[in-house]
Amino acid sequence: MPTEEKFLRKASRIVEENLSDPGFGVHELYRELNMGRTQLHKLLKAHTGKSASLFIRSVRLQHAQTLLASSELNVSEVAYRVGFNDPNYFSRCYREMFGVAPSKDRS
Predict the structure, then answer these.
(1) Where do runs of H (alpha helix) occur along 51-86?
(2) For the whole prediction, is pTM greater than 0.90?
């Protein structure tokens, strides 16, 4: 497995382990990865095209999409479970990433 792929998997796993913590952000991610903020930003930008904060948000939203499709949780409950404090902001971010409202992705 290429080093970039290992790095992205590790970064995603760390975010997923901290999903329910709305305070988990870029600072915590680069500390967990044992690297500097600039190095983290450069690696993520080069391999995903996203900043570190957008990478964290996209991991949260991908997990939210899975929860919406496979659970009985309502949109607000999913938002809180994946680390969003504001369900309205969660809905805006979700719609921006997936092109549909989170309520449309319910199974």
Answers:
(1) 52-70, 75-81
(2) yes
Residue length of the chain:
107
Q: How many whole angstroms separate alpha carbon 91 and alpha carbon 96?
A: 8
In which band, very low, low, confident or very high, does the pLDDT at 107 lie, cut at 50, 70 and 90? low
What range does the domain containing 50 cover?
3-105
- Rounded to whole angstroms, how far apart are CA atoms 57 and 106? 20
The domain total for the chain is 1
The enclosing domain of 8 has a CATH number of 1.10.10.60
Residue 37 φ then ψ, to 5°: -60, -45
Q: How far apart are CA 94 and CA 106, in angstroms?
A: 13
User: Which tokens go with 60?
Assistant: 């949260």
pLDDT band at 68 (very low <50, low <70, confident <90, very high): very high
Q: How many CA atoms lie within 13 A of 30 on its CB side?
A: 15
